[in-house]
Amino acid sequence: MVILAETLMLAAVLLPLLAVVGILLFRRYPNIREAVSLVTAAVLFSVVLLLYLQVIGGAAVRADYLTILPGLSLSLEVRPLGLLFALIASLLWFVTILYAIGYMRAHEEENQTRFYAFFAFALAAVMGLALSENLFTLFIFYELITLGTYPLVTHAGSEKALKGGRSYLRFLLGTSIVFFLPAMIGTWFYAGTLSFTPGGVFGEEVPPLALSILLLLFVFGVGKAAVMPFHRWLPAAMVAPTPVSALLHAVAVVKAGVFTLLMVCIYLFGANTLSSLATIDYLLYLIAFGILMASIIAMQQDNLKARLAYSTVSQLGYISLGALLASSSSIAGSALHIAMHAFGKITLFFCAGAILVASHKTCVSELRGLGRQMPVTMAAFFVGSLSIIGLPPTGGMWSKWYLLLGTLERDQLVLMVVLLISSLLNIAYLLPIGVKAFFPGEPAVASVEVKEAPLPSLIAIVFTSVVCVVLFLWPQLLPFFGDFTQGIVDAPR
Amino acid sequence: MISHLPILQVVLPLLAAPACLIFVRARSIWLFTCLACLLTFGISVALFLHVSDVGPLSYEVGGWPAPWGIEYTIDSLSSYVLLLVSAIAAVVILAANSSLGPELPERQQPAFYVLFLLCLTGLLGIVATGDVFNVFVFLEVSSLATYALIALGRQRQALWAAYQYLIVGTIGASFFLVGIGFLYALTGTLNMSDLSERLVEVEQQQLLAVAFGFVVVGIALKMALLPLHGWLPNAYAFAPSIATTFLAASATKVSLYLFIRLYYGVFGAETVDALLPVSIVFLLLGIIAVLAASLVAFRQSDVKRMLAFSSIAQIGYMAVGIGVGSTLGLQASLLHLFNHAFIKGALFLAVASVVYRTGSSQIDAFRGLGYRMPWTMAGLVLASLSLIGVPLTAGFVSKWFLVLAAIESGLWVVVLIVLVGSFISLFYLWKIVELAYSKSDSEASRNEAPPLMLIALWVLVIANIYFGIDTRLTVGASASAAATLIEGAPW
Amino acid sequence: MDFFNYWVVIALMMTGLYIVMAQQNLVKKLLGLNIFQTAIFILYISVAKVLGGTAPIYTESATLYSNPLPHVLILTAIVVGIATMALALALVVRIHGAYGSIEDDEIRDRSKQ
Question: What's CA B299's distance to the chain center, in Å?
């Protein structure tokens, strides 16, 4: 059984790479090329699901592959949190490919082969990141994600796209080189290991000052988590084609960031060490400030994708906050929010793309009354908004619930208030879009004939918005819901 | 046979240099040079294996015993650097024939190969010999060949750059000569191991300080440590591309080797630092070099010149490793010495290919090359990532050790500066990459570099990736070399 | 005046370095470089002198010789120096051909064009 699980684990990383080869081979036949992507995505999802069924009994699965330096190896291991991330990413890859087929063809984008190839490559890196056994492996895949998504961000090749890509690369590679790398080497120096260990790896003898510095370096170094003031790459990266924005900037890239933070907080520092650090409060307030600021900035954005981008910055703050609070509920909340926000935000991005393709509209103010012409899209948008805000009947409610519980467990009333205010702000900048689409108030100017988005895209949109509702009704569909934090947070050091 | 390898290592290219002139056609001379370089590389491999299995090797030239005659000694450090230099030479020479085609008239090409072999002789000699005066002679052999190599550049500025380098280089070598003159006056010996034993007994500490000062400044000039780097940008920018590739990958590295050998192996770091603040000065200069040279590199519009400034910054990294002063710091320097040779070799070779196809190394010439020369540009991107220090490349390994060394010594500021430096390198390298993959106005068809240049480039690129994944050779050799040096046992 | 030789060495070295830096004419720079190198030769030979010793040539009549090794070293250094000078002068000839001048500032101006 264990051997099979190991094979599955490796397959999860290699399958998307195989898809890259397939995509390049069939570059002259678009239909086969897209079929390769879709089939691989479906197989990948089943592989991860199988893996989940294998280890649900608690069997430990890990394997070493390459040893780069003594004690530093490329190793994979299946952990609950990583499995959750891998499941979401692989499922949403499938959905996004479906969406992209409609979008890219309707939009008549160039270089589609390159697009699908790097898409698959990025997914391979995400899988590797999710299944990393140690921080070193994670770091490698973290960098590979950045490099693999850069060609996607600059896909259009225009001056604006290049500028966005430049900022994307500078922020992500820059923070990882200047902060993340020394944090990792420092951890290696003080702890002597980079393996993710429940309860943390630092001994009693490590000076608290060094730990504080390391934590600071980690929080700012994981640029993908978009902690202010290193969030600027996210809005800049919105120059990418919408499917890229959807999967990579609502799911894979940003979630890779907060996933890394979660892993660092839980498995390297450990809840006990983390809450004993003197600097933790300042960091928490900084992140809380970032949550509010991002929400306020989002309100002022008229460009729909920019508004969604800032909303993402704010929502990522929730997850980082939960990770740093490091109570059992807040960790659960963060993990859940990775899932819930993924489905909610991808729905919103899908809708934004569908609107762009169908009506060539990019601004919030132009969307008034669009519900008549694109009822399905705008309804899905409404559901997605609800999930981001955290209102029933959508899954977003559960993660916010746990996060609020987490603030209470740590007696952080200020943070609780911040979370609540931010939710109000979410309502203010998201709900009116959906409402005004259906109830424009004054009669909308019927300008051009607008139809719904292409069929594959529409299927994707409906699917993700339905999942948002399903996750409200049956949250236990998510692996380890509720009890998976046991044995992680309270593990003895 | 093994016992004669140390001298063969040096004599083989030395004899091959005049032997080139037996042939008439440039192409046959090139083939002959390739053969000589391959044999030299083979010898260095044999030496490396022998030293790592059995231990240091010593050779008495002409059969004269050590303190009187000239002794060649190959220990873990020198075999490591010999391997590097001869490997670079063997790879670079592969591309030489193609690359020289448009850059040098056919009748001048024989001169290039002769000078190349002489330069190689000098560099290998510096590393192999155990006698400080012999070092001076080889230093001048390699320098004279280098001046002439630079002067072969096709623009007239090449002559001017060569002249300037000649003046500065001769002053540097003369400083070195004055330094060893003082050392000889104080100890009565020129043999390195003998010297290190007798230096301890020297009583005139002031004179000793003067001697160290002259030697250190002389070598710092040759290795282009800021602020003594002035000669390097012009020299690299105007020399024939293939000469630049070889020099950038090997010449400054050998000077650094010489410094490490003398500072740690012969003088003893503690002895020197008691008299002169060498390690602190190296740390400070290294930091300034990393930041300043990287920033200047960003502003260059000629890619060769940009990479030249980047080299000055990278020398800064190696100086920082020495300045940190620990075994780990020295190991980091030695690792970067090795890895950077492959990184810069690959980068300059990619530029050489571009010069071959477009006739220019200006940054504008790179527009759209990603589609016209996909393999060359892919190599350039990978080598750039290695220079930036992305994991799974060689550059990451040396950066890892440098940061680890700084953290070990509690120098967090140094950590930050070192990393900011590599962040800036992302800025200037990506300028090229971005242009290469942006659409060009003229829809020129695919026009890849000649196959031999491509092979040489990809050998270097694959070496970059290989040494980023399998680090046993580099880390092992640098660790044992650093340990022997720090413990003060010179050989 | 025990260290007369060494004072001469220092004076010559400084003179040579000054000429290299201050002169505009490329040939004059080389002359300065030559003086600088000659100073070093004198340094080595002064070191080798043993008081009362004769030249290091074996004869029946002498018992005390000066140290022959530095002489040999300096022979080598002189050869190196000549090689450098030959190369440098050749470069100056080529520079004159390419730029039409051997004045530092004029060449700098023309390099920029």
Answer: 24
